[in-house]
Amino acid sequence: MRAFEYHAPTTLNEAISLLQEHGEAARPLAGGTDLVVQMKENATKFAAPSHIVSLLRVPELGGISFRESEGLRIGAGATMAEVAESSVIRARYQAIAEGASLVGSIQTMNMATVGGNVCNAAPSADIAPPLLAYEAEAVIVGPSGRRTLALEEFFLGPGKTALATDELLAEVRVPVPPPSTGSAYDRHTPRKQMDIAVVGVAAALTIAGERIERARVALGAVAPTPARARQAEAALEGQAPSDEAFARAAETAVTECSPIADVRGSVEFRRHIVRVMAARMLREALIRVRSR
Predict the structure, then answer these.
(1) pLDDT tens digit string along 244-253?
(2) What percent of the chain has pLDDT over 70?
(3) Is pLDDT at 208 greater than 70 in this prediction?
(4) What angle do CA 178, 179, 185 make, to 5 degrees?
(5) Single residue among 174, 190, 222 that ends a domain in this structure
């Protein structure tokens, strides 16, 4: 590992000032479950930072809160364990809790943060599809103040986000879900734990009467960024929920993804998994609506 200077700011403004001062040579450190590994491996595509700005002592980045008038706030420094165990998230945003519960081991969940997972911008990030299914927004802080961006626009490509070098993700905001909404997230991996998604699918359904009022389907690991399957969503809205409708929507979702082939799965295999898992997550979301 190359030598670096370590900074431990205690306020958000101090952290932003350090990033602004050191520019491309600086990297923020949250839980470190991605950054530390990258620094140790010294990957050829990774420019080792000479300044590390730790965010562990910045209280503004922590916490999880919910208000009926505002929705859910997840601080960028909140850990995956905190998200997975949050009673309000488990009750109102089931898919988000499920995504957080799948990030690595128990030890990893206790270190990895929502901000780190989102800002790492891996197409396979488990927290991303559930957040997209709930139409989350990123709250970004920099020298010019705060700005809000739809999370779907935050991801620009593998490892690339809309953050400038002197900006930080401060929190993620998630709207209050409509009544009679249920959601689900799962992924396919060769191993049950300590693996990354070959395919990840989140689904959220809002039911009004006997019809699907609103549908959200988000995919991970099958495109350069996590993304919503908007055509599949449109195909469901206004329809009566059924296995046939879910199968048709899943088939549409297959046409909206663009997976790659690698040692973990072919393009055809990944498309097949999208087909199977999209229908399965939609069925699970419906079960959860009806169980309320």
Answers:
(1) 999 999 999 9
(2) 97
(3) yes
(4) 70
(5) 174
Residues facing 141 on adjacent strands = 146, 168
Cα–Cα distance for residue pair 14/1, rounded to 1 Å: 26
CATH at residue 43: 3.30.43.10
What proportions of the chain, in percent to the nearest 5, are helix, strand and coil? 40, 25, 35
pLDDT digits 0-9 by tens, 114-168: 999 999 999 999 999 999 999 999 999 999 999 999 999 999 999 999 999 999 9
Note down the domain range covering 22: 5-54
* CA-CA-CA-CA torsion sign (220, 224, 226, 227): negative
Same domain, 222 and 269: yes
**Nearest-angstrom CA–CA distance, 233 and 133:** 10
Mean pLDDT to the nearest integer, 192-220: 93
Residue carrying the six token digits 């992924």 = 187
What is the structure's pLDDT at 45?
55
Final residue before a domain boundary, out of 174, 208, 237: 174
Work out the angle at residue 175's Cα, subtended by the Cα atoms of residues 174 and 176, and round it to the nearest 5 degrees. Answer: 120
Q: What is the distance between the alpha carbons of residues 165 and 161, in angstroms, rounded to a whole number? A: 10
Helix (H, G, I), strand (E, B) or coil at 4: coil
Q: Are residues 160 and 229 in the same domain?
A: no
